[in-house]
Amino acid sequence: MVSIRDLKRISDYEWEIPATVNDDMQVAVRIFATHNLLEAVMEDRSLEQAVNCATLPGLVGHVVVMPDMHQGYGFPIGGVAATRYPEGVISPGGIGYDINCGVRLLSSPIMHEEVSGFLDDLASALNHLCPSGVGGKGKINLTDKELEAVCRDGSRWTLKHGYAHEDDIRRTEEGGKLEGANPASVSVRARQRGRQQLGSLGAGNHFIEVEVVEQVFDQQAASIMGLKEGALTVQIHCGSRGFGHQICTDYVASFQKAVKRYGIHLPDRELVCAPLTSPEGQAYLSAMRCAANYAFANRQVLAHFARQAFEQVLAGKVKDWRLYQVYDIAHNIGKIEVHTVEGESIKVCVHRKGATRAFGPGSPDLPEEYREIGQPVLVPGSMGTASWVLVGTEQSMQRSFGSTCHGAGRLMSRAQAKKKIWGEDLRKALQDEGITIRAGSMAGLAEEAPEAYKDVDEVVDTVIGAGLARKVARLKPLIVVKG
Amino acid sequence: MFDKGFLITPGNDGKFGILRDMADRSYAGFEEKAHTADWELHVWGQSFCDLLEQALLGMNALSGVILDDQHRVERLVSIHFLDAEDLLVSLLNEIIFISEMEGVGFNAMACAIEDDQMRAQLFGGPIISLNKEIKAVTYHNLKVENKKQGLEAHIVFDV
Question: Which chain B residue's Cα is nearest to A74?
Fold first, then answer.
């Protein structure tokens, strides 16, 4: 067990677990948190899991943990770990089952006061047009050939089929398409699951939300992103659905043998990994990229349906009801990137498990209009609380492999939340605050109650204090649609 | 094909084998444990087949599945496994897959294990409703432990 005494304070926002705490640790762990947030996570196994991560072979720099950290399985949620390419390893559990779970933000010129009378209709239209719920199927049934095209082309597939605009693709991480995705590495089972779920939200903490821009902190950045105080935005949070879950399941199972073959000893079987250049590692990398591309396409199709909902309800009632892409980012992914570690520029495989890429200004990987301000970072809060738009910084490149937080982070278990909060009461309370809810299950709603999460403002203030991001705008929810 | 409820204990090679019919199933159950983000289930059973069945029932309870008892279904599954933990994870993931693809769930099972292969007969019905989606069953800190009264394990589900 890691105790607070094992931690070395670097600053008010940064702590270290030295590599000497455990004989098997390859690198130290750097935690971005205030003392208050740190105390909260001492209640669960987040830090123990971070120490376990630090035993992976081939790690460079530090294992980094974000302030929204909480206990996961294998990696803690909020964990970032980079292994040297090509000598290091890749761990499917370090990316997670919901491969490329991520967030998309759409802006609009629609002012809140123009549409306050139509929000209920808008909630119903979004709920009707965007398939959601447990095991929910999408409206698009793909043939195996079409699924393979989605795997290879990601959001580009949606552009070809009328679900996207060119600007949507340009303003998506990696242009909505990771290179090196080979469907041959995807199992029959994953294909079966994937064929029927494109364009579906799923359940759990996934949502579609309509917000109003409550406050702008950086006028220049907000203006470039198309965000204006008082205007509506739409946020979509979901991932690769059963397709990604099955790919991770398949490879975590097959890697159980791979670790034995490569003589890798780990403290937790969920951390199983294989050398990046091994046949197993290459196959997983390729399959994971297929799922990542599927998730980019999934959020794009949902954005298309959200646009239909806006048109259906608001056409003729406001001058311009269109929704414009701000950005789309992944927070569960493995990427081959170049970072400077101890003064040396090296290629690494960055595992982000509940952490968002936050590249700083000047990065050639960003759309031209964002190169001056840095990459947009989308940080959804818990249901009914604020969400944040940030931008990445030069410091995030130096200290966290160009990464920052991904949300508020859970504080309370689902069981505790259900015991403490009654879904229907919560729905009414949110309604009284002016938030319209559409949810598939009241029990599911209770699990996602704001009290079950950390204070997103404190999480954001921590990454700002640590220099990992800059504030652009704060969004206030008006409509929440959940599966 | 299989009688329900065999007592299974580790063989000399560390693998599990069927030894005898099970007489007493009083030591069997499951309970939810606190886990910040996902679900953790503590399951126990006198035999390994009991443990698997309790894990199945616990998973059903967590996801709030309601089955149609009027239209019973049966499925046979065959699983190759590395060890007890691998079998536990593989069986539950198999059930998640069947449930999603076919819209059926299970609430009873019988199993036979030989060397590194398990054959199980699953009994259930069409899913009427389901509250929560389980993405996958994980190997996180999973260990099937021999206790005085039988076997137990803690399973973490990604939800």
Answer: B140
